[in-house]
From TrEMBL:
Sorted UniProt keywords: Isomerase, Lyase
BP GO terms, sorted: fatty acid beta-oxidation
Highest taxon listed in the record's lineage: Bacteria
InterPro entries found in the cross-reference section: ClpP/crotonase-like_dom_sf, Enoyl-CoA_hyd/isom_CS, Enoyl-CoA_hydra/iso, Enoyl-CoA_hydra_C
CDD domains: crotonase-like
Name of the protein in its database record: Enoyl-CoA hydratase/isomerase family protein
Molecular functions (GO terms): isomerase activity; lyase activity
Pfam families recorded: ECH_1
Taxonomic path: Bacteria, Pseudomonadati, Candidatus Hydrogenedentota, Candidatus Abyssobacteria
Family: Belongs to the enoyl-CoA hydratase/isomerase family.
């Protein structure tokens, strides 16, 4: 099997590398099967504390492989239906993963690549790169959770503008709109994302995981039910070794050591 998603581990940080550089890392069914399998395994591996997602070559991800979809004998509608199933499994695992996931946007992120980047918790973007939603210019509708994450990041009005006009979004504009966490010089996106991952990995990952889950679910919860879940999470974190270390460090006026 061709390795369309490569993995590299550096202690407790894993880098996932989309590996179809000749197609600007466009998404086909085989690549999405591999990505879904990798992120599902990473989510279940407690020895991994942070993840970086990037692309091989000049692109982060140019979106769904339209040539692949058009070449499928069952037709493009069925091909997209099959592709989206695996894509959405991967995106759901990223959303639900109780550890930070950082997109290193080293090159173009368009269509499904745009949605995939938005699914991550943080985004580090190279200065000369543009983001583009791209779906509507091809007569398609956004998938990969893009219609869920985009309005939560930039607001409904701005999301509608991005959807309707599909203009390229520069790194400066992306930073101003909150679409990315950090803009770095070209060639440094992966390096900066890995440094961020190491910093996060050294922190209280159990605490981060609960906060990520609560923030993700906050838009879909009634207030009283949500704060009751917060109360449970707070107590659970206090009982966890990470929480106990944090409390001891506070009492002893020292920096906590969360790593095992």
């Amino acid at each position: 099997m061709t390795e369309l998603v490569k993995t590299k581990r550096d202690e407790n940080v894993v880098t996932l590398l989309l590996n179809r550089p000749e197609a600007f890392n466009a998404l086909n069914h085989e690549m999405m099967e591999q990505l879904a399998r990798h992120v599902t395994g990473i989510a279940a591996d407690d020895t991994i504390r942070a993840v970086v997602l990037t692309g091989e070559g000049k692109a982060f991800c140019a979106g769904g492989d339209l040539k692949w979809a058009l070449s499928q004998p069952e037709g493009a509608p069925a091909a997209f239906h099959k592709l989206a199933a695996q894509f959405h499994l991967a995106v759901s695992e990223i959303h639900r993963m109780r550890k930070p996931v950082i997109a290193a946007i080293n090159g173009v992120a368009a269509g499904g690549g745009f949605s995939l980047a938005l699914a991550c918790d943080f985004r580090v973007m190279a200065r000369s790169v543009n983001l583009r939603q791209a779906y509507t210019s091809a007569g398609l509708c956004i998938d990969g959770g893009g219609t869920f994450t985009l309005p939560r990041i930039v607001g409904v009005a701005r999301a509608m503008e991005i959807v309707a006009f599909d203009k390229p979004i520069s790194s400066e504009q992306a930073l101003a709109w909150g679409l990315v966490t950090r803009v770095v010089e070209d060639g440094r996106a992966v390096e900066e994302a890995c440094a961020m991952a190491r910093e996060l990995a050294a922190g209280a990952i159990h605490s981060f995981g609960w906060c990520k889950a609560l923030l993700t679910d906050s838009f879909n919860s009634e207030f009283e039910a949500h704060i009751e879940r917060e109360r449970f999470a707070l107590s659970e974190c206090a009982a966890h070794p990470g929480g106990q270390e944090g409390l001891r460090a506070f009492a002893e006026k020292r920096k906590p050591k969360f790593l095992p």
